[in-house]
Design a protein that fits this description.
single chain; alpha/beta; TIM Barrel; 8-stranded mixed beta sheet; 8 strands
Amino acid sequence: MSDFSGWEKLSLVDYDDNITTTLFMAGCPFRCPFCHNAELVLHPESAPKIPWAEIKGYLEKRRGVLDAVCISGGEPTLLPDLEDKCREIKELGYKVKLDSNGCQPHILRSLIEKKLVDYIAMDIKNSKERYMSTCGTKVDMAAIEESVDLLIHSGIPFEFRTTVMEEFHDEEAFEKIADWVRGAKRFYVQRYIDSGGCIQNGFHQVPIEKARKFVEILAKTVDFASLRGYDE
């Protein structure tokens, strides 16, 4: 069994109104400079290892207290035994939320078809034209597009989300994003925080007025669009 490398034992913000425990795995094919889990992404080989038995024991003891498990990263679809872990979590009676960048649509498809995940949050980094520059590396855009299409037509509850910065995002980009994700149920425009754990620091937060404009653009093509992390 592969290990997780981070663990937030109690979260009230990762999965709607569910009381959640959040697990983080190390490793990601992207190098988004604004990523706030730099150590997990850049140095997965030296990341701590949390025994699965310890996590499972915690979940067994807290049945009836916790509602869900959020599996995040890094990029959790890189876990070779992700399906096994999701199955064990589901067998304990928990809902499973997965955070993903959409780089492995075949993994998402398998999890959905086997009913091993209840909610998926996928990052939309930027418009297609700006994707690679925003991710800091070469990206298989066909895979990202397949994941977007999969979620829109899957019937599973999901959300798209974009963390916005002045250096990367503007109204033109969001016009293209809105057209790309047409028909999606939920989309969140997330506030960027220049934290100490970022791969690169110094980017600038998008002012709330501008972020609201992004939401207005998205609302033309998605059922629900909103800000996240901004004080409204």
